[in-house]
Amino acid sequence: MSAFPKNFLWGGATAANQLEGAYNGDGKGLSIADALPGGPDRFKIANQPDFDWSIDETKYRYPNHSGIDFYHHYQGDIKLFAEMGFKCYRFSVAWSRIFPNGDDTRPNEAGLKFYDRVIDECLKYNIKPVITISHYEMPLNLVTKYGGWKNRQLIDFYETYARVILNRYAARVKYWMTFNEINSALHFPVMGQGLVKSNGADKMQNIYQAWHNQFVAGARAVKIAHSLRPDLQIGCMLLYATTYAYDANPENQLAALKENQAFNHFCGDVQVRGTYPAYTESVMNRYGFSFKDLDVTAEDLATLKANPVDYIGFSYYMSTAVNVTDKSLETANGNLVGGVRNPFLKASDWGWQIDPTGLRIALNELSDRYQKPVFVVENGLGAKDVPDANHFVQDDYRINYLRAHIQAIQGALADGVDVMGYTPWGCIDLVSASTGQMSKRYGFIYVDLDDQGNGSGKRYKKASFGWYKQVIASNGERL
Ligand code: BG6
Fold first, then answer.
1. pLDDT score, position 332
2. Which intervals of the chain form a coiled coil (predicted)?
3. Pocket test for ligand 1, best of 42, 177, 384, 434 (most atoms within 8 A of CB)
4. How many percent of the chain have pLDDT more than 90?
């Protein structure tokens, strides 16, 4: 018998800004992703003191402008997802397609119609849409005019946006998430909060104020969602990097615990439990401010309390190790969340430490902590694929990575964890979020485009395509 429940949500995940293209088509406004240059230095460039979000095509390439042109290829792409047997497809709505400037009074009907078509195309194949309301693509105007999420006004703008899309799609879409990888702002606040050095990212208080505003905005979306459809499921979405103490030294154990609180658990604790955790003040004091310094109203706290999320969505790519007692250890260069190199693990071409067992631990930790269902909404291996003369990629490395992680989920199910589903990241090749590269590929489907935007844009099935199809068809038995 398969370890996976009958209704397990097998699928794949993408984000609007990384694949749609048509960045200014049909009334869409600019998003922050549209103003980030392509290439591995995109975060570094965005954090230069004089960065002002202006687009300079004489200097940089902006790969998110064209993505893989899903905007015009969604029918063929969703057909391929259906061929793999997807039960669900996680995608995001581009906020700037619906409210081009973020503060507009009326939504852009052409943008709403696009997602009508995407949703209907999924439903045609019995694929359940899973929508992320905000995935690293806030309207740029909300950053240049309002200073990003540290400004409270964004709570109302997000609420208006969430209300519009929930009203429009809730009858057809049961699964939702409020903010992608909300906790990632601790390490890179540019994508989730619109904060860079030039507008306040160098002050930790701003990041926590931005989080507070996002928590309240998210809770308001939860309220709207539940009022529209009682069986609707709306989750938070965390970047979870299982965090180990490097060794049994109690100092390292304590440091790992503190790191877990600050990164893996803080946002989830507020969004799932509806209250700030007891360790809030100690985390904030570490950064030189107090909870009292934040702009938090009694009404905000009541909203958080009354509207916790229904499940915990999370991405899992890597684990990390903490050592505060031996300064000579090599740091885990490339790992998005830092830490030291773990001698038991190998890393991807981009330095992310690969650890399937860490996923089983993550699932257990989240389930034990919150007693709610968990959903692995991102996981995968960013790798350089080399197609043969027929454009075929024999991506056994990707199959091996995914197989080991699916086995880890199987283990967690046997441990008693309520796992809702699994949507590997970038089920079709798309633009990387952290490096703006096409060559960092995750897909089951190869897209013929390179980092310079050259190529036919045609789609080709990789070896992993047939493999994943068989995994889904056997409900995880044939791995
Ligand atoms: C997550 C994001 O961080 O990981 C995605 O939610 C992102 O948007 C994915 O694409 C993989 O990261 P990257 O930087 O390799 O694209």
1. 86
2. none
3. 434
4. 97
Domain boundaries, given as residue ranges, for the chain: 9-473
**Gap from CA of 445 to ligand 1 centroid (Å):** 17
pLDDT one-digit tens code per residue, 280-328? 999 999 999 999 999 999 999 999 999 999 999 999 999 999 999 999 9
Residues labelled catalytic: 378
CA-closest candidate to residue 46, choices 233, 209, 196? 196
Element holding 425 (H helix, E strand): none
Tell me the CA–centroid distance for residue 285 and ligand 1, in Å: 30
ipTM: 0.99
> Which residue blocks in 415-477 are alpha helix, DSSP H?
463-473
315 CB under 6 A from ligand 1? yes
Q: What integer pLDDT is reported at residue 2 of this predicted model?
A: 62
- Atom 5 of ligand 1, nearest CA residue: 433
Q: Beta 346-347 vs 353-354: how paired, if at all?
A: antiparallel
**Is there a contact between 80 and 445 (Cβ–Cβ < 8 Å)?**
yes
Closest ligand 1 atom, CA of 432? Answer: 16
Question: 142-194 pLDDT, tens per residue?
Answer: 999 999 999 999 999 999 999 999 999 999 999 999 999 999 999 999 999 99
Report the C-alpha gap between 317 and 240 in whole angstroms: 8
The residue count of the chain comes to: 479
Residue 336 has pLDDT above 90, yes or no: no
In terms of Cα–Cα distance, which of 266, 286, 264 is closest to 277?
Answer: 266
Fold of the 9-473 domain: TIM Barrel (3.20.20)
Rounded to an integer, what distance in angstroms lies between the CA atom of residue 55 and that of residue 465? 37
- Which atom of ligand 1 is nearest the CA belonging to 180? 6
Rounded to the nearest angstrom, the distance between the alpha carbon of 339 and the centre of ligand 1 is: 19
Nearest atom in ligand 1 to the alpha carbon of residue 136 is 8
What pairs with residue 12 in β-bridges? 89
Burial class (CB in 10 A: 0-12, 13-18, 19+), 230: exposed
Q: Please give the C-alpha separations between residue 442 and each of 96, 219, 431, in angstroms, as whole numbers.
A: 25, 32, 10
